[in-house]
Amino acid sequence: MPPKRADPTTHLAINIAILSYLLHTSTHTLLQHTPPPSSSSSPAISPTTIRKLNLPLQMVDSFLTIFHATPSPSPASPSLSFQLLLLRFTALFTLRHLLCASTPSPTALATLRRKNAARAAAFLAWSDPVAGCDVGAYERVVGVSEEEATPQLSLLDALPLFVEVVARARDVYGEKMAPRWRAVMGRFMLAAVGEGYLVCGAEGAGLLREAFAWGPEDGEEEGEGMWGKGWEEERAEGVRMLLPPEGVELREWLREVKGMSGGVEGVEADVRALLAELLACEEVPLLTRVERGERGRWGVGGEE
Fold it and tell me: By C-alpha distance, which of 40, 25, 46, 45 is closest to 90?
């Protein structure tokens, strides 16, 4: 008698339950156990901790191979696709100071930067917040890093993926999306510029333009799309904030802006908090509830 197999729908439901559990667990682990390394008060992350952080990511990678190899009667839900995107960004962002499994290879990083620059150029062709500004101080700057160690992945590298995370979250969760995301986005752009010129040794005004490129797409009117009414002025205000007053050296001014805006440390804390809120928008996976010993909805020891 041939062995019985689960029908495709049941098999898919089981695989989705496992994948959802792994995605949720991995994202939660990264947010809870990776203190911002840029903060001087943060303890160093030991190799043992890095291995523990890598383990759930490796489990996700392994299971995704199985998941994609299994025929599915329907595509993955927008919610599941977003969970995967959220984990991808969370891993890159929280581990960006470390050389670890999630660190892009030099080739992959070069490809990412070319892609990011091309996307930024498309936005700038439609709306350039730097146009008409005196960016001579940036054009004259000589690339020198003030830090001994630079991040494996800069804030500028991570910015387009953060924009994508926010856009997808708004599509999937709507009103559940934290309304303060736009303020976090603005501080992200400010910090990306400060880090680029003070830490990564950027030269020229290209980085300033690329950091503030993101806004309404070609054909969108003010107030349409994800950015909403007022973003154009907020973005322009951010650029103006970064222009040093006459007689003030650029790096000196960027350090002052960092003090006013919270700099990299402040935006890392803001982004982590926003990511935790996005993770909480999704219902806790069934297997996570089982793991916690919760009763009820999944029918073990409960009424439902």
Answer: 25
